[in-house]
Amino acid sequence: MKKVGIMGGTFDPIHNGHLVLAEQIRTQFNLEKVIFIPAGIPPHKQELNITSSKHRYFMTLLATITNPHFEVSKIEIAEEKISYTINTIKKLKETFDSNTEMFFITGADALYELETWKNIEELLKLCNFIAATRPGIDEKKLRDKIDYLNKIYNAQIIVTSVPALAISSTDIRERIRHRKSIKYIVPESVEYYIYKNKLYI
Prior knowledge:
The protein has 201 residues and is of the alpha/beta class. The protein has one domain: Rossmann fold (3-Layer(aba) Sandwich). It has helices at 16-28, 53-64, 85-95, 120-126, 139-153, 169-177, 188-196; strands spanning 2-9, 33-38, 70-72, 100-107, 128-133, 157-161. The protein has a six-stranded parallel sheet with strand order 3-2-1-4-5-6, sandwiched between helices. Helix 2 (53-64) runs antiparallel to helix 7. The protein starts with a strand and ends in a 5-residue tail after the last helix.
């Protein structure tokens, strides 16, 4: 079986934490590649002022271009409508052969909202989930949640730990607004793109 990682997110902006997470999971689970999918209109973030999909796509492209195992897909931003993971996974499944196994990569904290996702039972049958722990997360509470989801939905949710990079896109945006440095938190090419296009000011 070929194994492909799917990493969705707003990537507003993409940062080194995303890249470390994707690369560690790629090597740990022997994935052929990881496809980064910038969200079109995220259903859980409609009320937020999200940067245009064009900028988020280009930043993701710049951040991943040096890794031959990383790809960036426009599958969600091309539709210009609310992006549901179930629809994305179904479309991707049509492009892969039957010997391809998909692994959806997410932060472990997203598991607590998983049952609010559209058609979650069907989604958990279509692909495996790899949940990455972050600093400060309650591991017992997380394990209990995973056990519950695996039992109720017959899911295949795997949990893994990543290096303690406490980086968030929210913090990066705040740093820029307060004229603080973001060097070494995002790839140099992304840093240059942000300042050139006057994003998050």
